Amino acid sequence: MNNTETAIKASVFSIIGNAALAVIKFTAGYFGNSYALIADAIESTTDIFSSIFVFFGLKYSSRPADENHPYGHGKAEVLITILVVSFLVISAGIIAKESIENILTPHSQPKPFTLLVLGAIILFKEFSYQYVMRKSKITNSSSLKADAWHHRSDAITSLMAFIGISISLVMGDGWEAADDVAALVASGVILYNAYRILRPALGEIMDEHLYEAEEEQVRIIALKVDGVIATEKCHIRKSGMSYYVDLHLIVKGSIPVVEGHEIGHHVKDAIIKEMPLVANVLIHIEPDNCQLACK
After folding, report:
1. Which of 150, 165, 192, 221 is most buried, by the most CB atoms less than 10 A from its CB?
2. What is the pTM of this model?
3. 83 and 201 share a domain?
């Protein structure tokens, strides 16, 4: 199974899981008199749509390069990531609004059985986060990482609701709004997570220098190839789930052009072989006796 298939499989898991949990949360919240659980169901509903966008985004971004898109369609994944972050922000806003309204509206205490439902939800959502995040690291997918954080945000929201309902039940009359306060706190946590997802996505779309570990690995591989004296410039950018490398090599200035060309190809082949996430390497050859004007 290649990276695209792995990522798509993980996104399907998210869609099915979020749909099932949205129904469970709303049902339990309605019959259990828990506004925090209903707010949690709203967040899961938006998660369904965001996971669907991730699914279609992954399929589109995996399209091969064509005449109009010589570098492929990978940048679409960043746009999907930004869209997923937008859903997170919308979710946080809805939860905050509903929580404030419920705090101001007198209501009965939640039912004790809602704690059992929330406990199961927290465990499942944390498992979902770990599963999808692991797949995002394997596939190098930023949109899948954003989807994973949706699961973690859902787990946090459910945890806050669990704490709030527990306080409400233990403290008794006068503490009915504790679960609503907890949901309000959770909305702030979700906004913070949205920022954590958005920041690297913006860096990716702007080709910001974010890949120091990969750059070091590229240089190490290049220096192992016979004929390479040193490496100079090394620029790495990410598109979709793949990296694109621009690398300057320094070789002996006395060798024929053909030999320098062959060295460049050997370096490119070695990098792609040892770093499967690298889609292409553009090599520039410089002679060791080149002056500043050559650069």
Report:
1. 150
2. 0.69
3. yes
